[in-house]
Amino acid sequence: MSFSSSSTGRGGAIGGAAFSPLYKQIKALLVQSLHAGEWKPGESIPSELDLAARFQVSQGTVRKAIDELAAENLLIRRQGKGTFVATHHEAQVRYRFLRLTPDNPENTQRAQSTILECSRQKATQEIARLLEIRTGDALIYIKRLMNLGNRPSVIDEIWLPADVFKGLTSEVLIHNKGPLYGLFETKFGVSMIRAEEKIRAIAANAQVADFLNVSEGFPLLQVDRVSYTYGDRPMEIRRGLYLTDQYHYRNSLN
Amino acid sequence: MSFSSSSTGRGGAIGGAAFSPLYKQIKALLVQSLHAGEWKPGESIPSELDLAARFQVSQGTVRKAIDELAAENLLIRRQGKGTFVATHHEAQVRYRFLRLTPDNPENTQRAQSTILECSRQKATQEIARLLEIRTGDALIYIKRLMNLGNRPSVIDEIWLPADVFKGLTSEVLIHNKGPLYGLFETKFGVSMIRAEEKIRAIAANAQVADFLNVSEGFPLLQVDRVSYTYGDRPMEIRRGLYLTDQYHYRNSLN
DNA sequence: TAGTGGTCTAGACCACGTT
DNA sequence: ACGTGGTCTAGACCACTAG
């Protein structure tokens, strides 16, 4: 295929004329296939040469598209084996989105969660805004307690759009082993690929203090998260309260 | 230059025989030049073709080396202009390593800092370990109060190796406009390129509460940071206490 | 041995910024 | 018009994994 500006080929803009390189267009097509479920989490995608033939471009162009998707953790490259769709199942012990780490690395964090509640709610204005749905739309609400190293350490409140997570009940949650995001992939076809968090220090209220075995007013980390699937669609709101006297939230700055 | 395994070319291992691609070797040479100060923060480095000639490799190989350095924020590419050494000066308003953001984005955070203390200390065992120096080595200790939006919001304590930051006094700090890391680049030739943070929720003690205009016991974010220069050498320890009732620490997960 | 991703090259042309 | 980074191609060969 020849290379030219946006008026040519896939993804040409209608009138804006924003230049979009070929590999970006290929990348968008790959994401589209991922979103459509053509290749599922954990599976391998076709080889670079196969994709090059399919899209009628050179291997190098496919390569660059895959490179970016691998950098964004949508795909995982394995030399000699192939390129695989990222999954929250493999990360198993090391929860991909949980940045809580023991101060003392010897304490292997055996995570274990207890469902405290699983009910239906209607979306408040705030949650509707974040999930890009309408106020009053049906939500599934989950409240759970997580133990790290046999000690209650995290309380999570989770809000999900009910239409997408139809059939998500307390029973399903209790039977689930491993990360919640793994369940979302397997049972509901929702892959979480990115999240934004806002972190604050707050004081534990009476109820929370009771669950976490601390006194009322004890300082906790409040982590407000919005998780996104393919195409930057928000799919989950989560508020986590972390006990950070023996754990900390780790972060890298570049 | 031909392409072969580690026994060939620059960077060949002595006996371990770990394979190192050419572009990784070029990358290491570039970092070496950056560290040596051949190109200073804000300046441009030679063009890709010049570097290709200098290292006797193809432009594509130099390109891949620069790509990775740009991804790590050591270099900044600007189409049509050149490739520049990253600096903490340009980031000016948007402090590169400060993740504190107003809950209400309208509140433009006018940062302004007051030096509370600048003295000499000897390294404790803990700080010596983190800075990879010896216990008892000379340190410069800085304590400062930062105002965001005309409200005291952050208290920082900073520990620096005295031999590297010779001549860093209270006067120098007070006269400095802009980010501290900009001062480090200009006056001491130290470029901070990466940092690791550990975040916890703690209760304000009496002294801190007084500085931040809150009551004792008020929940604060405690951010412990280690900053690194070229070659992963730790060069700064920092403990920040953040008031997060109107601000939050933002983070992206991938 | 075959297939996959990973590296390297050489050359052509495009987009952007400056002169 | 020129120089810079950005995109694309085609082809060769290397490294890793599996059958």
TrEMBL record, chains A, B:
Keyword Membrane included in the entry's annotation: no
Protein origin, superkingdom: Bacteria
Keywords: DNA-binding, Transcription, Transcription regulation
Domain HTH gntR-type per the UniProt entry, residue ranges: 20-88
Keyword Transcription: yes
Database matches in SMART domains: HTH_GNTR, UTRA
UniProt name for this protein: GntR family transcriptional regulator
